[in-house]
Amino acid sequence: MRTLVAAGAALLISLPLAACSAEDTLVIHSENGDHSFKVEVVDTPETRAKGLMYVQELADDAGMLFDFKESRPVSFWMMNTYIPLDMLFIEADGTVLNIHSNARPHDRTSIPSDGPVQYVLEIPGGVATKLGIEAGDTVEHERIAQ
After folding, report:
1. Where along the chain do its domains lie?
2. Rounded to an integer, what distance in angstroms lies between the CA atom of residue 119 and that of residue 126?
3. Which of the pair, 146 or 19, is modelled with greater confidence?
4. Is 132 helix (H, G, I), strand (E, B) or coil?
5. Residue 65: which of 102, 8, 17 has the closest Cα?
6. Residues in contact with 37: Cβ distance below 8 Å, sequence separation at least 6, in sequence order
7. Collapsing DSSP states into helix, strand and coil, what is residue 50?
8. 62 forms bridges with which residues in the sheet?
9. Which positions make up the signal peptide (predicted)?
10. Quick check: 92 and 67 in contact, CB under 8 A?
């Protein structure tokens, strides 16, 4: 399965990501305030497979929102990803279920959600800790039902 995902991602590298996604504002409501991010939304198997692979830099207020269109356990890995990432696993109602901080570039270790989620937000590594974002915080975005 991983080989198939990697092969699909390799085929997609020539496609502009903007053609497969939309950029929106996402807000995380935490105990110490609200934190806004400009995110690209990916919601097809092809765009989710590519994710942030091959991206060389990401602004502190930027990220990618993965929409799986249903709640289910998910897992990620960092193959062909060049920058460290924080992964926020988000339930259908916008509650952050768990956070994996500073995922290591090129690591093939599986990074799972702690249960069913509909969304995953990837932001630059270390930003969640820096901003005080924690499990239990809520996420506001036009795709997320509140």
Report:
1. 2-140
2. 19
3. 146
4. coil
5. 17
6. 25, 26, 27, 28, 61, 62, 63, 121, 123
7. helix
8. 38
9. 1-21
10. no
Residue pLDDT, tens place only, 100-134: 999 999 999 999 999 999 999 999 999 999 999 99
- CA dist., res. 26 & res. 119, Å (int): 12
Q: How far is CA 125 from CA 18, 60, 70, 135, 144, in A?
A: 23, 9, 26, 16, 23
Which residue carries 């903007």 as its tokens? 18
Please give the torsion angle defined by the CA atoms of residues 46, 146, 64 and 72, in that order, rounded to the nearest 10 degrees.
Answer: -50
- In single-letter form, the type of residue at position 34 comes to D
User: Which pTM does this prediction carry?
Assistant: 0.84
